[in-house]
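User: quick one, sequence for these tokens?
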């Protein structure tokens, strides 16, 4: 529990220090046959993972396809996402601040 509190304090220090946490870099992408996990990293070193379902058929209403289109990345080039900034949303959760990709803003900007 003390580690969770320390992490939250570090994240709050980042925010109060004036760092922009409205967009954060993608630090890793992990693929499975059914999902794509996109990990975003904060300046504090904390990482958060968002999971996109890999659909059996790619359509216009597929979040993964919309995300990749918005980021200008082909499905075969997922590693190209690493290092790119994405809009982020944050909320207070059970373990402190929790960050995730702000999908609505990503899709809006496309």
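Assistant:
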């Amino acid at each position: 529990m003390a580690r969770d509190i320390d992490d939250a304090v570090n994240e709050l220090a980042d925010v109060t220090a004036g760092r922009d946490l409205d967009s954060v870099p993608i630090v890793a992408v992990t693929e499975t046959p059914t999902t794509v996990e996109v990990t975003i990293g904060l300046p504090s070193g904390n990482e958060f993972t968002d999971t996109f379902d890999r659909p059996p058929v790619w359509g216009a209403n597929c979040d993964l396809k919309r995300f990749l289109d918005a980021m200008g990345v082909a499905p075969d080039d997922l590693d190209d996402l690493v290092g790119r900034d994405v809009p982020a949303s944050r909320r207070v959760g059970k373990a402190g601040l929790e960050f995730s990709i702000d999908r609505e803003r990503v899709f809006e900007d496309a």
